[in-house]
């Protein structure tokens, strides 16, 4: 799997509908699910809402949360049956819930447990197992702790690590603040790649300019974008050309027609159109007349021809 360009797992955002709309815009970007705790797969009778996906979403990664090796192994078996391309262990989420549950970023304190979790997962998986981490947490000295952490977890046999280039502050900051307040430290990630040249390092955190960021691929193996894509998903139409040298360009009229077809198909299956439309409207944020387009999308009768009529006037993106 080519991890040059990845879209980060984001709670409340990267559901199957979002992933399908993203795939219409980019054929090659690696997509992630929201984080799902192993308990959600093992203790609920109906797990469809957590596990279901469409084939067109691939390549797609299932992100798993938890800290009990045996539970993670059982959850891994379930995920393997659903044709995901990879399973990623969350070792970076800094929410109060993960601190109290001893998983997510809290696991940065317990590299041996992370190694055991990854080993158990790998032993029951036919697809690659990876980890997504932070540089460290709280008062850890990342110059001393990060390489040691990596050395230990690599004993599990994994060879791909996604690194959010910030520390996670489990004391004093909420998840939103943890995405912005701890300073970015790309240089530490670059040194990590120098220290472990044989593993794949994917850089995450604060990326927002495709052309400038592409230069970072000289130091790491891939880039992972989060909130920037959620705020400006239309930028995905540029990804295949910039990062994968594709000569095909997605016309915006074609994109909106694909979205309409997907919406109608799911509504005919009895699913809520709102859950799809809430992602659709974001694709046109920043366009002139985006308010009018939003009104059309959210109306009872989606008039795609009217949206295309507006778009064909070639209004520019608002700066």
How do the helices and strands line up, and which of them pair or pack?
Blueprint: E1 5-7, H1 16-25, E2 31-32, E3 36-37, H2 38-43, H3 48-51, E4 60-65, H4 69-80, E5 86-91, H5 96-101, H6 111-123, E6 129-134, H7 142-153, E7 160-164, H8 175-178, H9 186-195, E8 200-204, H10 210-214, E9 222-225, H11 227-231, H12 239-244, H13 252-268, H14 273-280, H15 290-298, H16 304-311
Parallel strand pairs: 1-9, 2-4, 3-4, 4-5, 5-6, 6-7, 7-8, 8-9
Helix pairs in contact: 1-13, 4-6, 6-7, 13-14, 13-16
Question: What can you tell me about this protein's structure?
Answer:
There is one protein chain. By secondary structure, the chain is an alpha/beta fold. It folds into two domains: 240 residues, TIM Barrel (Alpha-Beta Barrel), CATH 3.20.20; 60 residues, no CATH class. The chain has 16 helices and nine strands. Strands 1, 2, 3, 4, 5, 6, 7, 8 and 9 form a nine-stranded parallel sheet that branches. Helix 10 links the parallel strand 8 and strand 9. Helix 13 packs antiparallel against helix 16. The C terminus is likely disordered.
């Amino acid at each position: 799997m080519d991890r040059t360009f990845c879209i980060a797992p984001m709670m409340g955002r990267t559901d199957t509908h979002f992933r399908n709309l993203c795939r219409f815009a980019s054929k090659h970007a690696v997509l992630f699910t929201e984080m799902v705790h192993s308990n959600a797969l093992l203790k609920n009778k109906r797990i469809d809402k957590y596990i279901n996906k469409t084939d067109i979403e691939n390549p797609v990664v299932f992100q798993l949360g938890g800290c009990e090796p045996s539970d993670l192994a059982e959850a891994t078996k379930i995920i393997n049956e659903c044709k995901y391309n990879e399973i990623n262990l969350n070792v970076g989420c800094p929410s109060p819930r993960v601190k109290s549950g001893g998983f997510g970023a809290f696991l940065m304190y317990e590299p041996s447990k992370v190694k055991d979790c990854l080993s158990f997962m790998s032993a029951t998986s036919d697809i690659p197992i990876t980890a997504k981490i932070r540089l460290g947490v709280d008062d850890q000295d990342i110059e001393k702790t990060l390489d040691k952490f990596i050395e230990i977890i690599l004993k599990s046999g994994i060879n791909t690590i996604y690194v959010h280039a910030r520390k996670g502050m489990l004391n004093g900051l909420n998840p939103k603040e943890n995405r912005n307040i701890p300073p970015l430290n790309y240089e530490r990630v670059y040194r990590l790649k120098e220290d472990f040249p044989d593993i794949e390092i994917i850089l995450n955190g604060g990326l927002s300019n495709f052309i400038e960021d592409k230069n970072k691929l000289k130091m790491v193996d891939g880039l992972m974008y989060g909130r920037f894509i959620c705020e400006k998903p239309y930028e995905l139409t540029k990804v295949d050309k910039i990062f994968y040298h594709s000569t095909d360009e997605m016309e915006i009229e074609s994109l909106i027609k694909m979205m309409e077809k997907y919406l109608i198909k799911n509504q005919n299956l009895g699913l809520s159109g709102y859950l799809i439309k809430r992602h659709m409207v974001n694709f046109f944020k920043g366009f002139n007349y985006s308010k009018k387009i939003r009104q059309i999308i959210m109306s009872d009768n989606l008039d795609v021809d009217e949206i295309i009529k507006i778009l064909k006037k070639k209004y520019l993106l608002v700066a």
